[in-house]
């Protein structure tokens, strides 16, 4: 049997003795073969009455043959030097005696499913049966096939090519074939992400001299040994699709037959690197190709953006019912619209079908193929631009090409890109190398903004002139982030109106409050005393000799008091529609002439009765309000899918003895429960039937696993898209945890020796318990992560994230100091309640406030992209954590600013949403840039003014709002206390007094050039009210307008 290089899944010598054909799969596929042949005989099968397939001997060359593919598809393995002749009533096998004995098992199944007899003809000297259909493009090899070919030609029959029929037969894959394709794609992406890209980045960063062929060898070794690529696949089942392709230095070939040469990798500025990697699993192919760009030119940036959009359009056109040509035409349409000058450079095909063969010729994605797309087809969508030219004399970068390729499965509705884990996003394929030229290119980049997008680099590499300081690199990166952030904010504000909607649920109208449906339902009067009807939730008041009922929800407050004569008074105040705290509802608007009772008072000589009445009314009102609040919260919940229990499908993944936060309500003793992973979600339950929570996988936004290190608990935390109810609490955060250490207090009072054997043994037990708990949680997390890698969860992008303790810092997000830790996608604090989970992708900017010399603490303000959402303040962060926080923010591509004062963000965001155009025109977020402020004030006094809110006049209302925005947690050092005392003294100063002090300070600094108008402008630009400094605040920057 054939070697693996011949496109087969050849078993090892040890496996040959136990080789067996899968009879059930043979029956299904033989029936499909005859059905396709009968249905498309006149077209795809060339009107063939008989089909002869000859498989050549094994070869060391890597090749793809239709005959080999049919062997593997039908029988499971390749049978070289074998001729198969398919007739209407018979199937003939011309092969060796050993192969004939292995094929005996197919005789009975063939007769059962299609009614044909299988005939064996061992030996090469047998006479050939007459045939018509054959594979035209496969030349005969070996004695048997040459003899067969000669007899076939001499028989006098007309020969027809059945290649298209076999292509159509192989086009639609069954479930087993799709699994093989997905495993091959997983291996290909793992090699690309874990081997190829890191190897390239390391070579470029360290300026290594490495050849294309050496990179090819590394990638090929990783495919043949999946453990190198961190892929858990058996090496016996994998192989390469083709030798991996690496191209750079101006010589590019986009054909699948291209090869890696022995030239060195070229990665200077404006260079392009093309990578193509393909692997096979059980003989089924997958392919991915990516283009990396170093300091991309505007032409390269634009061409790549157009190519990416064109490939996505081609993939989107691969839907059942469309023609295969629709994919190429969709890509061509994008290029003609976005960059018509690039149409001549576009590849003439958008890819081919793929499976057992790397290129199934009958499924070419070109403009002329009218065959229809069918669900479960596998296609290699490959698109590129060939022979583009840069305006340079350097031959290494004068010519360049771009290529993108992905493995795609045509789904019932939408195509599935199974190689999507290999990123092709702009930020992941572009690299910055010439940092020294970045500042010079910025003005030009702004001028060219309309012509092509200036792409942001993924990794900052070393410059040619030596090492650049970390602070300088960070500053340059932040400058680029500022430009991009202003552009992004401008687009968002331009596309979203400033209308402020009220998303609050409508309150219950007065018409819904019914205590009694009928007068006869009112209980009889008892001595005209105030009565409480618990059942009907009503309070009956004696008014003019009658008992008048009031629903308890209409009561706003109730109070009692006693005078010196021991006379008690009870005062009841009602909710009146139309007042400040009780807006009109639909019912009150219908009866605008209605008269409402505002309050009522009663006098009594029985203080005990009065006290009981007040207590009963308050208790009843509290219960009713709690019930209505829970009902309102449940009404706003998004309906969730029903949990599908594992049942007999698989044993649910289980973690026991867990506690939950938020806790269930009720007065009973709290009980631990177990967490189980089922088909589409988690279920937590205790021994009480009512204590159960279901968390659907589709509702999970972020999942965290935090092992106990310096904490006392090991936890799993789920941050959800939509609220759920835990008991009677509405929450977006659900946590399951185990306490790994007991809180023990020694009652003895005396100190214990450090060498006390009991204490040493106790500490050892605690360590063992902690390690055991962490390992149990880790095992649960690993198994759930494996479950989430299944195809049905691919769109959810779920994976447990683990906080990075080394990047953590202390701060006060709510009321107590907590240890706040970043993860790969969030900023979290999961130990203290309320929990803190901030998604990094939702952050607009971060402003570090109260940053300055002599400060022991500073504050962090997080501004979200949704300007209607309140900013998040994290107070009292130690100043020692400042550099680490800056580095983390810069690494995660978050733009940050620094300010010496706490700003009034509510007023700032209101100003932006009220007049977004002024915010954009005045430079966007650059009004926060203190560095630009200092440099601009030194270099230019006549430049454009920075962003000034239109309503920043110093009136009394603004001062009150500003005072609310001050830091909630102040520094505890003496200097802070002194400054606070100073601020209290100076709060009463008028603007004229402050202006005189500012003028004197300016004269002392010999800064008489500032005019009265400039000083007034600086005052108006102070958003937040600080602890009134003894000298005037530094001048705000003068910046160019953002366009």
Automatic annotation (TrEMBL):
**Can you give the residue ranges of the Histone chaperone RTT106/FACT complex subunit SPT16-like middle domain?**
809-899
FACT complex subunit SPT16 middle domain location, by residue? 530-684
Can you say where in the cell this protein is located? Nucleus; Chromosome
Organism's domain of life? Eukaryota
Domain (FACT complex subunit SPT16 N-terminal lobe): residue spans on this chain: 21-166
Q: What is its main location?
A: nucleus
Compositionally biased region (Acidic residues) = 933-944, 952-985
- SMART domains the record matches: FACT-Spt16_Nlob, Rtt106, SPT16
Q: Which GO terms describe its biological process?
A: DNA repair; DNA replication; transcription elongation by RNA polymerase II
Kindly state which keywords UniProt assigns to this record, in alphabetical order: Chromosome, Coiled coil, DNA damage, DNA repair, DNA replication, Nucleus, Transcription, Transcription regulation
List, as start-end ranges, the regions of compositional bias called Basic and acidic residues.
481-491, 986-1015
**Renumbered residue ranges of the record's region Disordered:** 432-465, 481-508, 930-1043
Pull one GO CC term from this UniProt entry. FACT complex
Name any one GO molecular function. Answer: nucleosome binding
Task: Please describe what this protein does.
Answer: Component of the FACT complex, a general chromatin factor that acts to reorganize nucleosomes. The FACT complex is involved in multiple processes that require DNA as a template such as mRNA elongation, DNA replication and DNA repair. During transcription elongation the FACT complex acts as a histone chaperone that both destabilizes and restores nucleosomal structure.
Record note on quaternary structure: Component of the FACT complex, a stable heterodimer of SPT16 and SSRP.
Similarity comment: family membership: Belongs to the peptidase M24 family. SPT16 subfamily.
Q: What is this protein called?
A: FACT complex subunit
Q: Which organism is it from?
A: Salix udensis
